[in-house]
């Protein structure tokens, strides 16, 4: 294991199991529909690819790049759209796929934006949720894991753009970012 990690927090197997559960939950909710699944880049990309492949419902996919952190571990409050969707969401059942809900600012902003553009419904799915850090009044509709207030990396999540390609999730040692 990398010396910057405190421990492995979620193994590849644990993640796989939960991704299957999330896919079943979505299949039940969207039976007979054709939702548009949106990956919030870059963090959700691994989860997104595994999730949509585990779903049986026919879906369409699209991508959006949002930046909220820069290279710190604190949300800057106002997430910025760096790359917008290529599909229209008007009249669509939208499934927003996030890596982690922390302050909730990103999720709240994206929900308002997509409903404001005329989405028929908005459903949010996240791999991880840190409810103890919430600032915005919003909850994901489905969360794979609720986690403690630790900074974690891997399976899409980064610290300063590193560690995204790990197949597992690890806790980053505090001394790495509290300098
Ligand atoms: P929010 O707007 O504060 O909810 O921030 C959500 C975004 O912050 C996520 O999509 C991640 O990119 C990032 N983030 C929050 N906590 C962590 C973490 O523990 N590790 C890596 N990225 C994180
Ligand atoms: Mg993110």
Characterize the structure shown.
With 179 residues, the protein is an alpha/beta fold. Helix content is 25%, strand content 30%. It is built from 4 helices and 9 strands; from the N terminus they run E-H-E-H-E-E-E-H-E-E-E-E-H. The chain has helices at residues 12-29, 45-54, 105-116, 174-177, and strands at 5-10, 36-41, 60-67, 80-83, 93-101, 121-129, 142-146, 152-153, 169-172. The strands form 2 sheets. A 6-stranded mixed sheet has the order 4-3-2-5-6-7, sandwiched between helices. Helix 2 (45-54) links the parallel strand 2 (36-41) and strand 3 (60-67). It is globular. It starts with a strand and ends with a helix. The relative contact order is 0.20. Bound molecules: inosinic acid (IMP) and magnesium ion. Residues 40, 43, 99 line the site of magnesium ion.
Task: State the gist of this model.
The chain is α/β, with parallel strands linked by helices and 179 residues long. It is built from 4 helices and 9 strands. Helix 2 (45-54) links the parallel strand 2 and strand 3.
Record keyword descriptors for this entry.
single chain, 179 residues, alpha/beta, 6-stranded mixed beta sheet, 3-stranded antiparallel beta sheet, 4 helices, 9 strands, binds inosinic acid, binds magnesium ion
What is the helix fraction of residues, given as a range? 10-25%
Average pLDDT over all residues: 94
Helix-and-strand structural type = alpha/beta
The profile of the biggest β sheet is:
6 strands, mixed
Order of strands in the sheet with most strands: 4-3-2-5-6-7
Radius of gyration: 16 Å
Tally of contiguous helical segments: 4
What molecules are bound to this protein?
A: inosinic acid, magnesium ion
DSSP strand count: 9
Span between N and C termini? 22 Å
N-to-C SSE string, H for helix and E for strand: EHEHEEEHEEEEH
Unreliable spans: none
- Strand percentage lies at 25-35%
General shape: globular
């Amino acid at each position: 294991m990398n010396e910057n990690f405190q421990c492995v927090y979620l193994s590849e197997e644990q993640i796989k199991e939960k991704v299957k559960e999330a896919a079943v939950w979505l299949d039940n909710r969207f039976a007979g529909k054709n939702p548009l699944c949106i990956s919030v880049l870059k963090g959700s990309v691994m989860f997104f690819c595994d999730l949509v492949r585990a779903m049986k419902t026919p879906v369409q996919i699209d991508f959006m790049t949002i930046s909220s952190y820069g290279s710190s571990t604190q949300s800057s409050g106002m997430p910025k759209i760096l790359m917008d969707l290529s599909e229209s969401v008007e009249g669509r059942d939208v499934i927003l796929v996030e890596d982690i809900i922390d302050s909730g600012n990103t999720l709240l902003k994206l929900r308002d934006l997509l409903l404001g553009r005329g989405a028929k419904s908005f459903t949010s799915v996240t791999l991880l949720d840190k409810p103890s850090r919430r600032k915005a009044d919003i909850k994901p509709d489905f969360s794979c894991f609720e986690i403690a207030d630790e900074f974690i990396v891997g399976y899409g999540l980064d610290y300063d753009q590193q560690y995204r390609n790990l197949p597992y999730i690890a806790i980053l040692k505090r001394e790495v970012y509290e300098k």
